[in-house]
Amino acid sequence: MPRQTNLLLFALFCLTTITGFCQESAEPEEAYTSKKLLFGFQMGFEGGFLSGTAAPSDTARTTFTEVNTKPGVGASFGMSFLINSTHKFAFRPGVAVAILPTKITYRFNHYQTETQILYHLSSEINLHFLFRNPAMTNKGSFIIGPSAVINMPALSDGHPKESAAFPRADLGFTKPLKLGVGFYILDLFYGYGLTSTIDSKGSGTYDQWYKSLNRHQISLRLHLY
Description:
- By secondary structure, this protein is mostly beta strands.
- 15% of the residues lie in helices and 54% in strands.
- It is built from four helices and eleven strands.
- It has helices spanning 2-20, 30-33, 58-63, 134-137, and strands at residues 37-54, 66-70, 72-86, 89-99, 102-107, 113-118, 121-131, 141-151, 165-177, 184-193, 210-224.
- The strands form two sheets. Strands 1-3-4-7-8-9-10-11 form an eight-stranded antiparallel β-barrel.
- The radius of gyration is 20 Å and the shape is elongated.
- The model is unreliable at 15-28 (pLDDT under 50).
């Protein structure tokens, strides 16, 4: 798991570096605590990798000598909404488009390989709950909640056959930042795909190596309100 560990360490490094250069305001801005709904944007960096259960068919065993998954890095951009309820709780829905080319490499023999891209481009709907409202407390809070990831197949290779969508469970931490005019919070969260990212109905040889394949995602996102 060295590559996956490097992705996590990279995300932690980015978080500590950014927060090191930013100072939190002593008191929350009244303009943001008094609003019931904050509207803004989210953008950030994405890292991801795949893990699954290999159960190759006889055809796949004779076609491929080895199959490996590779991590990828990308970026995301979208809209973010923060619904103020109490100091202890906030609801934050959002929508985003992410470019994250996680990959599978098929080796036919010692000299020939073929790399396929999974979910190069996807859209997602976030339904995150924040335990301790950063807009009212100006303090860090925990993130938990589901996201729906929808495959946008225009840039995908189509081998193996991908599922059209899958649910993801997210867990992480968010921290308010003072970067100038406006209200900013920085997220670091981990998301796990709850169902397989490949379609079990796929009939091609590429589909016959993994019984299931789940996606892990590490996100570092800045929300601007």
